Amino acid sequence: MIIKEDFCLTPFNTFGIEAIAYELSIINSIKNLQELFNAGLLKKKILILSKGSNILFTGNFEGLVLLNQIWGKEIVDEDDEFVYLKVNAGEFWPALVDFSVENGWGGLENMAEIPGKVGAAPIQNIGAYGSELKDVLISLKAFDMVEGRTVEFQNHECKFGYRTSIFKSKYKNRFFITSILIKLSKNPKLNLSYKPLADAFLNIDNESLTVKDVSKKVAEIRNSKLPHPDKLKNAGSFFKNPYVSEEQLNTLIGSYPDIPYYKINNDLFKIPAAWLIEKCNWKGKRIGNVGVHKNQALVIVKYDKATGHDILNLANSVKKSILTNFNIHLELEVNVV
Ligand SMILES: Cc1cc2nc3c(=O)[nH]c(=O)nc-3n(C[C@H](O)[C@H](O)[C@H](O)COP(=O)(O)OP(=O)(O)OC[C@H]3O[C@@H](n4cnc5c(N)ncnc54)[C@H](O)[C@@H]3O)c2cc1C
């Protein structure tokens, strides 16, 4: 059990915010977590850090950071139709997607290039292009940092929702997710329900498409729209798409007949936050060294040296505009620390 002091977190968050962890421990195994628990160290203020692609540091972390590096994956079962894969938390998500599509297994192809680690994927039930983690996840294992033991959660127990799970609400900061068990199809049915993806394959016979074609196309579309954090610092979508009631939607349509929306159920509709932000003229706007990306209004970018507070101030100004103009509260997707 090695505890490093005053550890620089700048390379460990995709915003590249300068922050120090007072203490940091690299976690390679469940045994490491058990040792920390036995030594009473998990009673400290804890932050679990994976790839740092969904985190905004607003200062130094005055506690113990657990850096997730639990590598490894294995096929635990398979039959004619499915393969069951156990993947440890430290594996890089895009590498897992590549591995699955190289094998021709279906389920992850629409979620190509989400630049996080496997252990963080259940936290906000990652999703893209019409697919979500919850569609393939059977169960996960997590270390309970209060009771000092490993527990298993079945899919339904994770209470997955749009960019959320029980680990973002009731069990926030309690469990270190150590592995996931997913079920991938050997006879994939492609999901082209997301319009930009369907449009990209408009003139191609869908019967001839493979999961690899889909993941390549998703990567292509993403790269054309989203800034890569290596080139322009960001943490992906900063805001969640808000849900409104039918009554609220009708009021909005009265004022903005062109407002896009998607029906979730009879009384719930999702509005693209990017549209709201663009309508309030934030798209492409820069304030100091931070700004709203020119191609994707959901993404806040850091052009040069800036603090987490600079980013948060911009986000709050965007939120205020949306509230004033549309009476909608935008929620943050990024975890502010
Ligand atoms: C360019 C870009 C594009 C993106 N596109 C998408 C997208 O299409 N869809 C999408 O859903 N997200 C997207 N994201 C956001 C992000 O990549 C995902 O949310 C990813 O799952 C975060 O993984 P991470 O390893 O970086 O987690 P971190 O940022 O390190 O952590 C995120 C949160 O999870 C917690 N956490 C991390 N690991 C564990 C663990 N093992 N156990 C318990 N808690 C843990 C952390 O404490 C923190 O609260 C994008 C980000 C970027 C930069």
H/E element sequence: EEHEEEEEHEEEEEHHEEHEEHEEEHE
Number of strands: 20
- Structurally, the number of domains stands at 3
- Classified by CATH, the class of the largest domain is Alpha Beta
Rg value: 21 Å
Q: Can you list the strand order of the major beta sheet?
A: 6-7-12-10-11
What CATH calls the topology of the largest domain is Uridine Diphospho-n-acetylenolpyruvylglucosamine Reductase, domain 3
Task: Report, as a whole number of angstroms, the end-to-end distance.
Answer: 25 Å
Mean pLDDT: 96
The level of helicity is: 10-25%
Query: What would the principal axes of the Cα set say about the shape?
Result: globular
Topology:
Layout: E1 4-8, E2 20-27, H1 30-38, E3 46-49, E4 55-56, E5 61-68, E6 73-78, E7 82-88, H2 93-102, E8 127-128, E9 131-132, E10 137-144, E11 149-154, E12 175-185, H3 195-200, H4 211-225, E13 233-237, E14 243-244, H5 246-255, E15 262-265, E16 268-270, H6 273-279, E17 286-287, E18 290-292, E19 299-302, H7 308-326, E20 335-336
Parallel strand pairs: 2-5, 3-5, 4-20
Antiparallel strand pairs: 1-2, 6-7, 7-12, 8-9, 10-11, 10-12, 13-19, 14-16, 15-16, 17-18, 18-19
The site of flavin-adenine dinucleotide has 33 residues, from β3, β8, β12 and β13.
